[in-house]
Design brief:
Layout (H helix, E strand, L loop, with lengths): L6 E4 L4 E11 L5 E6 L5 E5 L3 E3 L8 E4 L2 E10 L6 E5 L5 E5 L4 E2 L3
Antiparallel strand pairs: 1-2, 1-5, 2-3, 3-4, 6-7, 6-10, 7-8, 8-9
């Protein structure tokens, strides 16, 4: 499900964490990962308490169709993959699937 370095959201506290190691079986037989929290501490978290972090966040600049847009909303669950609402030139909005977006590197 996750690999080292992946970002995930810990649903116990809604914090984004980084996967450091795993999966491993803990002492009661549940699959878990060693994760690092934003404040620097690490802890073991059950798989059931982790979900993939969104690839993009509201306000982030992304490339779509060769132009820079700003993520205005999302992610939203689509039929096949998440999608986002983008704001582009002159405040016009478009909806696009996650696979067609790329982060802007500044």
């Amino acid at each position: 499900m996750f690999k080292q370095g992946d970002k995930a959201v810990c649903t116990l506290n809604d914090q984004e964490v980084e996967i450091q190691f795993g999966p491993v079986k803990n002492s009661v037989g549940n699959d878990s990962y060693l994760v690092k929290f934003p404040h620097g501490t690490s802890s073991q978290v059950w798989v059931e308490d982790l979900e993939p972090a969104p690839r993009f966040t509201v306000g982030q600049k992304v490339l779509w169709a060769g132009l820079v847009h700003t993520v205005a909303g999302g992610p939203f669950e689509g039929a096949t993959q998440p999608f986002y609402v983008l704001e582009g030139f002159q405040g016009k909005h478009v909806v696009e699937l996650e696979d067609y977006l790329a982060p802007v590197v500044e």
